[in-house]
Amino acid sequence: MKQTDDRINVAIDGPAGAGKSTVAKLVAERLGYIYIDTGAMYRVVAYKALEDGVGPDHAAEAVRTAERLSIELRPGQQRQQVLADGEDVTDAIRSASVTSKVSAYASNPGIRDILVRKQQEMARKKGVVMDGRDIGTKVLPDAEVKIYLTASVEKRAQRRFEELPEGSTTMEELREDIARRDEMDRNREHSPLVQAEDAIRIDSTDMSIEEVTEKILAICSEAIARGVEQDE
Question: Which segment of the chain is annotated as a signal peptide (predicted)?
């Protein structure tokens, strides 16, 4: 797909393990856009808070941790590099301990407010692909393309299992953890996981990554064409 000056913002939401980050990175690469992994930003906060002994129940202290943090996302050859206060935490934030707690930290409205402001600033100039839980509903409500990407719990657990180091967990533990996170994300008071009214729903259970990517790119092409027509 050719890059255009009529850049748009693309919001990809969905539950844990739906393939959002993988697809978002591919879409950004093909469009020549910037990929912003919001989930990684919440994982950084969880990682740092846990490292400092600040549990999710210590809401005010966790917010102060988020306020002090410098988070940087850098493109890498294989995957995006995540830095926290200059430290490479790309692997550390994907640990089982962080994964099991990140939703609890993400439900803290103070933490969400801090990170949402950072994310909106990143997207101000357009040309970003952002994935998370509330991108289309709260972070980028005016995004030209909104996607809700989902898959069965079994498929999502399988994908996570294949990503993690051998022996670090079991499929059953991952299934239970994903189901628990789904429940927390849907029922949290602030910015729950919901499909935006104008989002296009894609179930990736029986689709390959390339098929999902191509489908989203086609949707983006249509949105860009509409924008060009309106400007003429």
Answer: none
